[in-house]
TrEMBL record, chain A:
Lineage: Bacteria, Pseudomonadati, Pseudomonadota, Alphaproteobacteria, Rhodospirillales
Matching PANTHER family: ARCHAEAL-TYPE GLUTAMATE SYNTHASE [NADPH]
Every Glutamate synthase domain range: 77-402
Keywords in alphabetical order: Oxidoreductase
Single annotated GO MF: glutamate synthase activity
Origin: domain of life: Bacteria
Family from the record: Belongs to the glutamate synthase family.
Single Gene Ontology BP annotation: glutamate biosynthetic process
Name of the molecule in the record: N-methylglutamate synthase subunit C
Matching Pfam families: Glu_synthase
Organism listed in the record: Limimonas halophila
Coiled coil: none
Automatic annotation (TrEMBL), chain B:
A GO MF label: oxidoreductase activity
Protein name: N-methylglutamate synthase subunit B
TrEMBL record, chain C:
Any one Pfam family match given in the protein's UniProt record, by short name: GATase_6
Family annotation (Gene3D superfamilies): Glutamine Phosphoribosylpyrophosphate, subunit 1, domain 1
Transport found in the keyword field: no
Entries under InterPro entries matching the protein: GATase_2_dom (IPR017932), Ntn_hydrolases_N (IPR029055)
PROSITE patterns to which the protein is assigned, alphabetical: GATASE_TYPE_2 (PS51278)
UniProt entry keywords in alphabetical sequence: Glutamine amidotransferase, Transferase
Name listed for the protein in its UniProt record: N-methylglutamate synthase subunit A
MF-aspect GO terms: transferase activity
Coiled-coil region list: none
UniProt superkingdom: Bacteria
The Glutamine amidotransferase type-2 domain, residue ranges: 2-298
Length: 441, 233, 314
């Protein structure tokens, strides 16, 4: 008897992928671990629209009238703040989760664009330091590869409290990616799974963080800006507390932010989307009188100049890209299909960063796979992508009559959906209605 | 040749920690004066943090958080109690606490020798990555948690969950542990272990008989995720 | 997230300058808690048949002359001392009767503490300013606790400031962050405990109050708290003749104890203790996780207890 097509209707709560996951768990007795970010549809910057100038406001001429993009990060306490030419930075991604070629490509592209890259769990490599003119050095709970010399040769320091993909969770690097070099950098035997701690080993809470920041300033003679990175959850409190603890900048990673490897349950169920998080963080900064004094760098699902423009309009000082930067240099590109198939996926659906078998040579240390990504080519790709993002950002800013992208405001936007209106606290398009703010449509 | 430590005493009632550290950071190889005594520390934080020269710092009194943090090459002696994270992430050199130490002593340290004559509190040697820590007294709970490399010597007792999730670090314990953490097991003490223990005790200047110690380390059962594959049955 | 300090005098010299010493300790903890500060002093017991109350009034009113005159009509003896935004009332009479009278005649008055010896003063603002506003330096006493607050989630108000009163002559200060206080607050409300704020530390105080009302000793109540409260905490609890310290079993929030012949002190950081005479030669150590420490004065006035778990005196 053949299958009755009319009966092929999935159960609302038990579609085939849910059944498969239940049976996988039953078979393996362990949670699913994967890379990249949330796969569910969440309210995002796409749900905001910008109000271009017309009669009440006047636009700037593209290419002729300047629209500046420079931003200074970390001037609150540090003697040497970072001067960025563009408000788009490369987010923290570890050597270990990424290979050397990818790290070098990021560094070269960022340096040519006048922006910064960021280290990750596992420390700083010489290649990475050489490739990046401006390098932000992360201080993470695991302190793998933590080294005072690197602290001193960094341009800024980022104390990582949490990550958008997994606020409250630690890192993870599965044994298959821990080759001799990675293992040596992390002082561990090769081939073991590396579970990084979820809390710092020597401080908890804002009062102790303040003392930790003081120590980092002492070690680096008060030169380096100190960022505090948090995953978006109780964002208003966390932003305020990072500022109270003395941060020069707050890095806010929304739940759409990526990861090299973590539990799927974490990626999909913990944290809040980037959109409401930015608004909450900016409000916290404004309440403290610290907006623009302590910079806010936003990451988690930034893909285009439009996303960047909207994040800046909500009050961010800069955005940071991770997943998108990887995609720019070839992540999920439809090439080497047979290698994607070996991982059980088609290009466009791959999230197998944790396996070390990256078909395009980005999240791997396998020399053969890495050779698929010549660093210079990767750098050109990312540079082009960043240039495009900046053009898009300037286009939108000029259209709103701004000669500097930081002059974008929430009032330059409306929302296409009620959710986005409520979360971003901008009116639903065509109305004066901001859900939760009183008034009515 | 500079001589930034020409003044051999630094009174923290009169000088800020920031000034003290700036002076210590300015010491260069070949300087005449390489020693300093710090008075009136009064529990202040980050005293002698980030040193990177063969200087000798003696702190007369109790210190706050992160004293001698990330030390390289320097010798720091604390004649008193040390607050949380003493010698955290130390790379090399020697830090010697004559009193008790608070929690997370020697956390994530990569090298060098940390000696604590008294007791150390919770999480002594947490995530240690090559440092040697010798404790004259006892250590608190979760000591050597996720310890990766290096050696932790405890002349007294250990609190609960000693060596939880330990990797390749080695623990030598003379007294009793209130409990071992996950994946931490007692291991056979061979001649080479007694020899390295004896060296560590001598280096620390602590008189204890290596024959009275037991060795603990990783059972290596947590090294990789266990997958049950019930379906294969 | 905060700083805690506690000082227990073992000598007359320390008692006479208790306020001066505690204020120094409190100000050292200013970085940890710039939002508000509060203290509990144990001094001048009123004795049998009397009750001592620390009170404050809603708004910026200070109706103490009226309150005092009114109380006189209902109770045989009353004294009132104004201190900053608070007042200390000593009334000959039963506490419940005094409370009922105040609730009826002066609903704007809030009781901050009640007992035989306890006096609590707390206010928002920088600890140094709070210390000045209450003239804390001049206060004498046998022992005292203090708290500086860095608000994490709940609001910065006087009512949110520590110490929280947990019963007659008992109060609690907290450093850390509880993770199950919302549901616990609901349960305690149904058991008749009233809360003035959404603050997690107030729930810890309420929990002790409820246990002790049900007949538990302080020691038993603290043991129960160790089982019921989730999250991270170091508590210091002031008692009629001593104080107690307890840390959660994970014990991330640091605490340090020190003792000399003249005093026993506890603080979140040693630098608070460093302000005390003889601190440089004091014995300094850390309280163990998940363990209850109690100091008190014995029949001869000596300070006993501490390093070992001690039963509270009956």
């Amino acid at each position: 008897m053949s299958v009755d097509e009319r009966a092929q209707r999935p159960a609302g709560l038990f579609p085939p992928e849910t059944i498969r996951e239940i049976q996988r768990a039953a078979d393996q007795g362990v949670y699913e671990i994967r890379g990249l970010g949330s796969k569910r549809r969440l309210p995002h910057f796409d749900d905001l629209l910008m109000l271009g100038a017309s009669i009440s406001r006047y636009p700037l001429e593209g290419y002729r009238e300047a629209c500046h993009t420079d931003v200074v990060i970390g001037g609150r306490c540090a003697r040497k703040p970072l001067h960025l030419d563009i408000p788009i930075t490369i987010a923290g991604m570890s050597y270990g989760s990424l290979g050397t070629h990818a790290k070098r490509a990021f560094g070269w592209a960022a340096s040519r664009m006048g922006t910064s890259t960021t280290t990750g769990d596992g420390g700083m490599t010489d290649e990475e330091r050489a490739a990046s003119d401006l390098l932000v050095y992360q201080v993470l709970p695991s302190r793998y590869g933590m080294n005072p010399d690197d602290l001193r040769r960094a341009d800024a320091i980022e104390v990582v409290v949490g990550q958008g993909a997994k606020p409250g969770g630690g890192g993870m690097l599965l044994g298959q990616k821990v080759n001799e070099t990675v293992a040596a950098m992390r002082d561990l035997p090769p081939g073991v799974d590396q579970r990084s701690a979820s809390r710092h080993p020597d401080w908890t809470g804002p009062d102790d963080l303040e003392i930790k920041i003081q120590e980092l300033r002492e070690i680096t003679d008060w030169e380096k800006p100190i960022y505090v990175k948090v995953g978006a959850t109780r964002t208003r409190f966390d932003t305020a507390l990072a500022v109270k603890a003395g941060a020069d900048a707050v890095v806010l990673d929304g739940m759409q932010g990526g990861t090299a490897a973590t539990q799927d349950v974490f990626i999909e169920h913990v944290g809040i989307p980037t959109l409401p998080a930015v608004r909450q963080a900016v409000e916290a900064l404004q309440e403290m009188g610290m907006h623009r004094t302590v910079q806010l760098i936003v990451s988690g699902g930034i893909r285009s100049g439009a996303d960047a423009a909207k994040a800046l309009a909500l009050g961010a000082d800069a955005v940071s890209i991770g997943t998108a930067a990887m995609m720019a240099i070839g992540c999920n590109k439809p090439v080497y299909r047979e290698d994607y198939h070996a991982l059980g996926v088609e290009p466009g659906y791959c999230h197998h960063c944790h396996t070390g078998r990256c078909p395009v040579g980005i999240t791997t240390q396998d020399p053969e796979l890495e050779s698929r990504l010549p660093p210079e080519k990767g750098a050109r790709l990312l540079q082009n992508y960043l240039k495009t993002m900046v053009y898009e950002l300037q286009t939108l800013a000029r259209a709103c009559g701004k000669s500097h992208v930081l002059n974008l405001e929430p009032e330059d936007m409306v929302a296409a959906t009620t959710e986005a209106a409520a979360m971003a606290k901008v009116p639903l398009a065509g109305t004066d209605w901001v859900p939760g703010q009183g008034g009515g449509p | 040749m500079s001589d930034v430590l020409a003044e051999p005493v630094c009174d923290l009632d009169a000088t800020s920690v920031r000034e003290l550290n700036a002076r210590l950071h300015a010491v260069r190889e070949g300087d005449n004066a390489t020693g300093i005594v710090v008075r009136n520390p009064r529990g202040k934080h980050a005293i002698a943090a980030g040193l990177d020269a063969p200087v000798e710092v003696t702190v007369d009194g109790h210190v706050g958080f992160y004293c001698a943090g990330m030390n390289k090459r320097a010798t720091v002696t604390i004649n008193g109690h040390a607050g949380p994270g003493v010698a955290e992430n130390m790379m090399s050199g020697r830090v010697h606490v004559r009193g008790n130490a608070s929690q997370s002593a020697g956390a994530t340290g990569h090298g060098g020798l940390l000696v604590i004559e008294g007791d150390a509190s919770s999480r002594c040697g947490i995530s240690m990555k090559g440092i040697d820590i010798v404790v004259g007294g006892s250590v608190g709970h979760m000591s050597a948690f996720m310890a990766q490399k290096g050696r932790l010597v405890i002349c007294g007792d250990a609190g609960p969950d000693l060596g939880d999730s330990i990797y390749e670090a080695r623990i030598y314990l003379r007294g009793a542990a209130e409990g071992l953490g996950a994946d931490c097991v007692e291991k056979h003490m061979r001649a080479e272990h007694r020899a390295e223990l004896s060296e560590l005790l001598t280096a620390a200047g602590l008189a204890a008989d290596p024959g009275e110690f037991r060795r603990y380390g990783s059972a290596r059962k947590l090294y990789n995720f266990t997958i049950d594959t019930a379906d294969a049955l | 997230m905060c700083g805690i300090v506690g000082l227990f005098a073992k000598s007359r010299e320390i008692e006479d300058r208790l306020g001066e010493h505690l204020t120094k300790m409190l100000i050292e903890m200013e970085d940890r808690g710039p939002d508000s500060a509060g203290v509990a002093f144990y001094r001048d017991p009123v004795g049998e048949g009397w009750v001592k109350l620390s009170v404050t009034a809603l708004g910026d009113t200070r109706p103490w002359a009226d309150v005092s005159a009114g109380l006189h009509t209902a109770f045989p003896e009353v004294s009132c001392t104004e201190r900053g935004s608070h007042a200390v009332l000593k009334v000959k009479g039963d506490f419940e009767a005094v409370r009922a009278w105040l609730a009826h005649h002066h609903p704007e008055v809030r009781i901050v503490s009640a007992g035989d010896a306890i006096e609590i003063f707390k206010e928002k603002g920088l600890p140094r300013d709070v210390a000045d506003a209450f003239a804390l330096r001049e206060i004498t006493g046998t022992h005292a606790l203090g708290h500086t607050r860095m608000a994490t989630e709940s609001a910065v108000t006087t009512a949110h400031s520590h110490p929280f009163s947990t019963g007659m002559d008992l109060c609690l200060v907290h450093n850390g962050s509880l993770s199950n206080h919302n549901r616990l607050r609901e349960r305690l409300r149904r058991l008749g405990i009233t809360f003035q704020t959404d603050n997690d530390s107030e729930v810890a105080a309420g929990f002790l109050t409820e246990r002790m009302r049900a007949g538990a000793s302080l020691r038993e109540a603290l043991d129960a708290a160790l089982r019921a409260l989730d999250g991270f905490y170091t508590f210091a609890i002031g008692t009629h003749d001593g104080f107690a310290v307890v840390r959660d079993p994970i014990a991330c929030k640091h605490a340090v104890l020190a003792e000399t012949d003249d005093w026993v002190a506890m603080a979140t950081e040693f630098r608070a203790i460093a302000a005390l005479p003889g601190a440089e030669t004091a014995r300094v150590w850390e309280p163990d996780p998940g363990r209850v420490y109690i100091w008190h004065r014995d029949g001869e006035g000596r300070v006993v207890g501490g390093a070992v778990q001690a039963e509270v005196p009956a």
